[in-house]
Task: inverse folding
């Protein structure tokens, strides 16, 4: 019995440490105007208030939220679809230049985004896409090497016999991919999608640089600017942070078991 | 008469396969070659130009590199970056391995504990940075209020040139330990249970088992976690942007932040590109070094 209490105690302590900033965020976001925004810890017994959320949304946060949701959905959809196609080609087809190309893809994982920032900005300027939705989304939505790598590893673990059988039955490449490979790849698809959603939802540097007009502002930029514009209205900032987290939290809770399992099967042995 | 036909068909089949492959690859080729690889080439070219906002770019050869080597701000930023990496990588790796050992047990409710530990990874770094700046606030922040309970007068974490960097790095470790735990957990679960039984029959202590069996078998996972963390911490930007803006003084002025300032505040694209080339070279060397080191160790294992 003693042996069991110890790991639980450590686990609970670890989890408390992992979530206490969110706990503080939650408490601060719902503080009333009567309570000084800076005082900590909060004063128990006072009723929660949504005033911070009202101020937040009055300053256009609802628009940022909608923008972020749409942009995240768009980029993620592109990333996953195009990564599936590329990964399938790398995993199952033989063609000249395959291995060299795959190494090129992998090597781009090493490029720090800040290094590509200036050329990308200038390219978007040339294309007339600065401060447009296309400029915001295009550079990241077409090719994501890490997703291609993870998917390729998974596709290769699927027995080729299954696909051969389908092909003998007369199914084409695309048909085989859709009706045989993809259903078997659910865990890795969920994982790649989740990773993409988290990255796109949280992305900051590129949106900060490429967009300037408020109607295209994303949540992360909104929160960062909120700090400066309102002279740190911490309650509102915390309300915004809370809203930023909730969708990702829901996503993760729903898909947690897939993610843990697919990490285990994706070539990390 | 019959022999050429199959060969022809095979050749046609191969040609069709190549065409199909490149059709499938087309969008990602545009993305990877156009938006990841081409920018690297462009940044190399730009680093040879003097180009300020609105001015015409002027080819200056290696002048930017001469400036770079004499620029103490750049070397300082590189040292600051290395310091950040030196705290974050071991911190995150060790903590995530310990967490993985902790959650690699069959206990009731374990999946909830695992999920809770991964949550910090999902936080929007900008929002997270603001929450933590507030926790670190010297007067009314949670950390110093907590220390106050024990009669400790906490320091001004983020406005101290000495403490600012470790504080920002602590946030990085806090954010990524749980995420990296997942990879170690996967690695641990791939180790056959029979090995544990065998070593406990031999009377090996859990600690000896860990160092002689578990750790060597985790080497591929270790390589993955180290490399992704090194690359990731070299790129740190978001939390520093909101927590310290490179300060106090230039104590948290990492190279990414310096590049951002040169390019998008001073609009000196040429010189910012030169610093980018330096950063890229450093990341490249760091990554390749790890690969070579681990490859050699692994090969040694196999042959010896």
Result:
């Amino acid at each position: 019995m003693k042996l069991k209490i110890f790991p639980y105690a450590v686990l609970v302590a670890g989890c408390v440490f992992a979530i206490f900033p969110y706990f503080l965020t939650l408490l601060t976001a719902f503080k009333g105007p009567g309570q000084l925004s800076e005082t900590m810890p909060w004063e128990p017994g006072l009723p929660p208030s949504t005033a911070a959320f009202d101020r937040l949304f009055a300053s256009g946060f609802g628009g940022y939220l909608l923008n972020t949701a749409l942009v995240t959905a768009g980029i993620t959809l592109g990333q996953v679809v195009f990564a599936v196609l590329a990964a399938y080609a790398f995993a199952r087809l033989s063609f000249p230049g395959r291995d060299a190309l795959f190494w090129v893809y992998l090597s781009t994982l090493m490029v720090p985004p800040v290094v590509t920032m200036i050329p990308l900005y200038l390219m978007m300027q040339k294309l007339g896409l600065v401060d447009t939705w296309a400029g915001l989304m295009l550079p990241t939505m077409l090719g994501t090497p890490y997703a291609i790598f993870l998917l390729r590893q998974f596709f290769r673990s699927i027995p080729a016999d299954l696909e051969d059988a389908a092909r003998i039955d007369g199914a084409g490449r695309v048909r085989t991919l859709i009706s045989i490979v993809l259903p078997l790849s659910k865990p890795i698809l969920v994982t790649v999608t989740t990773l993409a959603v988290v990255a796109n939802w949280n992305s900051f540097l590129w949106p900060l640089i490429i967009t300037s007009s408020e109607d295209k502002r994303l949540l992360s930029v909104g929160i960062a600017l909120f700090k400066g514009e309102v002279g740190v209205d911490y309650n509102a900032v915390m309300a915004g942070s809370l809203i930023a987290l909730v969708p990702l939290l829901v996503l993760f809770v729903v898909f947690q078991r897939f993610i843990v399992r697919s990490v285990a099967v994706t070539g990390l042995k | 008469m019959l022999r050429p036909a199959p060969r022809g068909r095979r050749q046609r089949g191969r040609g069709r396969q190549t065409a199909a492959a490149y059709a499938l690859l087309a969008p990602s080729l545009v993305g990877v070659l156009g938006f990841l690889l081409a920018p690297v080439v462009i940044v190399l070219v730009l680093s040879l130009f003097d180009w300020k906002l609105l001015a015409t770019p002027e080819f200056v050869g290696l002048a930017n590199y001469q400036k770079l080597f004499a620029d103490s701000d750049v070397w300082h930023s590189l040292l600051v970056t290395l310091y950040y990496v030196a705290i974050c990588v071991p911190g995150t790796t060790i903590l995530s391995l310990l967490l993985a050992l902790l959650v690699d047990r069959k206990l009731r409710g374990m999946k909830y504990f695992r999920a809770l530990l991964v949550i910090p990874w999902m936080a929007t770094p900008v929002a997270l940075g603001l929450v933590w700046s507030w926790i670190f606030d010297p007067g009314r922040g949670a950390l110093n209020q907590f220390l106050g309970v024990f009669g400790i007068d906490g320091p001004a974490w983020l406005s101290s040139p000495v403490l600012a960097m470790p504080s920002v790095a602590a946030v990085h470790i806090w954010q990524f330990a749980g995420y990296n735990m997942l990879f170690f957990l996967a690695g641990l679960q791939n180790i056959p249970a029979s090995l544990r039984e065998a070593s406990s029959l031999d009377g090996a202590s859990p600690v000896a088992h860990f160092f002689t069996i578990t750790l060597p078998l985790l080497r591929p996972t270790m390589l993955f976690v180290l490399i992704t963390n090194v690359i990731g911490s070299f790129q740190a930007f978001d939390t520093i942007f909101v927590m310290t803006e490179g300060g106090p003084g230039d104590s948290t002025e990492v190279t990414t932040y310096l590049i951002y300032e040169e390019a998008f505040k001073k609009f000196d694209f040429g010189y910012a590109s030169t610093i980018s080339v330096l950063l890229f070279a450093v990341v490249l060397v760091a990554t390749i070094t790890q690969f070579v080191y681990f490859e050699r160790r692994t090969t040694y294992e196999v042959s010896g």
User: Anything to note?
Assistant: Chain B touches chain A through 90 residues (CB under 8 Å). Confidence is low (pLDDT under 50) at residues 1-7, 299-304 of chain B.
